[in-house]
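2 proteins. here.
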Amino acid sequence: MGRLALLVGLFAVPAFLLWAGHHWRHRSAPVRGAFWGGLIAHTLAALIATAAGLYRPAEWEASDHSRGFFGLWSMLVFFLVGATIGAIVNTRRNAPGRVSGVMLAALLIGLADDAAAQARVRARDLGIAPGVFQPGSLNAITDVAGVRVGHATIVEGDSVRTGITAILPHSGNLYRERVPAALHVGNGFGKLLGATQLQELGEIETPILLTCTLCVWKAADAMIEWMLGLPQMENVRSINPVVGETNDGALNAIRSRPIAPSHVIDALTTAAVGRVPEGSVGAGTGTSAFGWKGGIGTSSRKVPPSLGDWTVGVLVQSNHGGVLQMMGAPVGRELGRYSFRTDTTRDQGDGSIIMVVATDAPLSDRNLGRLAARAMMGLARTGSSASNGSGDYVIAFSTALAVRRAFDARRLATSELANEEMSGLFQATVEATEEAIYNSLTMATAVTSRGRTVEALPLDRVREILLKYGVAVPKR
């Protein structure tokens, strides 16, 4: 509905105004100028926003309609500015209406060029393409068939900036059709719920939720209630919810624990295949990384047919520190924002990151543990050192039918890949993790809370730094 409303607002309304304009010929020159000026400004802004991808309907649907340069208010401003200029220019009767159109076009192109310089794009649009394997069609965790992702973004007043992100390995009942899984702990300063049973049994029986630190238990409780209400769950007396977290307290009134059951259910029930909204959405709404706005990021890799033709997808919730580098370019140092910048700095790279790895390769929980460990290598490539105060966790699972586990099975007859078949999957995991973290930064928008703003990574400066260090940057 958000996308439909956007299209109506951007194109249907000007079309109606265009039709109505034919009936206003008796109006004065200033009125005609205001009408045509406003229409031209509105339409040009709509076309530029559409072509440049500067509007983010998925983020507007996530309850923060102020995000993005071309929000609905911005479109209204363009209309009013155009109307004013058109009225002034057309006050002289010998000034044709198209004069105001030319002036407005020049004005809007200049404004749009400035806006495009800061438009949020994915890492690949900056020329950042780690590794040697190709991404899937979506370059997202949802390239792994059946995996769904849902967000609930919570923005309330001037202090609540948090949310829920849900990852569902398949469309069925996960309690009854469990998937093999593993957990790798890079640094265990965190509150990952469900960890011990996950490690002991090597499987997950619920969706994976990501949220804020003090919201873990409320999120888990809401998910359990939701699962108990599913069909064929009447006799269930034990559920192991898997809920990861990072601490977004710098931007979020975390002590208010603002997560409600409706938020959790919304994330679970709206989870979908396809494109995954990234940046300051869901569990990434209030997070920061490397001193800039962090959030949700995702990427994928296709393992070549000669190595199995498998897919690996990664989704991250970035809220960690370190010395940011992109494809070897020292972005953090060049921008003057990085951990250990001085001998007395308090920034020692603390924070947390949750990394979720999905694959369609039929892996045992043991080999999924080996796969999860490789995600830490992708994290290290971005400049993190997994500091003392960082909670760095990786959850990996396989969606392959050959390794599914029925909840009441007495015997498991599975067909899994041998150890010798793992190397390509390891490489894919490292590459996808690295790029997912970059995407969490490049797609994140600035967020303000209680008078404090965490700025988005300045992509115009990033382009300059990448060029300086020989990382190819495509023309915008």
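next one coming up
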Amino acid sequence: MKSLKMLGMFITSAFHRKIACERGSVMTEENSFRDIVRYEQGETVRWSRENVVVLSGQNLAMGTVLGKILYSIPTTGTAGEHNSGGATVTSVTGGAKTKKGVYTIECTSFTASPLAVECSVTDPDGNVLPSATAFGAYTSDQINFTLTDGSPNITVGDYWTITVADGSGYVKGIDFDAVDGSQKAYGILVGDVDATSGNTAGVAVVRDARFVAANLVYPTTSPAVTNSQKAYALAELAKNNVIPVDEA
């Protein structure tokens, strides 16, 4: 009986319905949410849904794939209280695999002539990342920064911390180029939300649901969202049992 009840929640309808008028003309009806999401867990309690806040500056259509801002990353590393040198860590950005917590950069070797420097880089879980082996830009899939020597010179034992904190938690149209968490698909917007003038409340399906992948809405970008990026988004949704179904 339960299975039949769940199946009954799948509403079979085309993305655009054609309706014959009295004079024989044909009009196209706009899609409804059930053309996109066919099943949600819990008929009355809306278990699959979550209240969200859409980030200011966006005007999103129903069915938009959302990303959530999970991380807040400072642009400058914090120097250790007892550092002897004047080196700095600046231009900090996150990577595709940024973690929440404290990253530590510590000078382990330095010579002034010939100039050579090496700094260890440790992630919030204590894992050792590739070392920074020169002044200038450092890149990894977790954290990026620029190490610059100062006056006096950097000294062995000098260190800097980069604290990645919780993000705002606001949602936005998925941004595959972002590094704050919004590059990962979080949910599907239930209705149109115009947040052009400020952060605006909305509702998203974020768990235990079935949807028609072809009817999802992705942000308009240049270059356009690729099929591989869409596949990545679907894989992220599937982690919370939000899974595509074949259109009837």
